[in-house]
Amino acid sequence: SMAGIISEILTLVGLVAGVPLLIIGLIVRGISHRWVKTDGVIAVSKNGSVIRWFDEEGDVHAGHQNTHESHGLVPGDDIIVWFLPRSPERCRTDDPSHDGRALRLTGIILVGVGVVSAIVGFVLMFV
Asked: For the chain, first and last CA: distance in Å?
């Protein structure tokens, strides 16, 4: 009786919380694939060091050198940059493929717990 109640609670928590987290994680991952990878270079400007890169049309863009990956780099050093084709003036230096990974992993774990608990609950009905 108590095992059935625990199984039902775990099923509800796992599925009710896991499915939305998994869906949100997949949406975030889909959005992160819009970033385009290119090579950037650390340069000096009036306001200090910046990262400069070319977009797909050959235009030069610059962004602040205030990221973890660019810390400690000196002018002339290369760095990998990701930018959005719709707004190439925005860049990031961290890999966008990691976006939503924690949400997806948590969602998968919770859905797995929910499914296993549902199976255990179903088996307990016949025992």
From this structure: 11
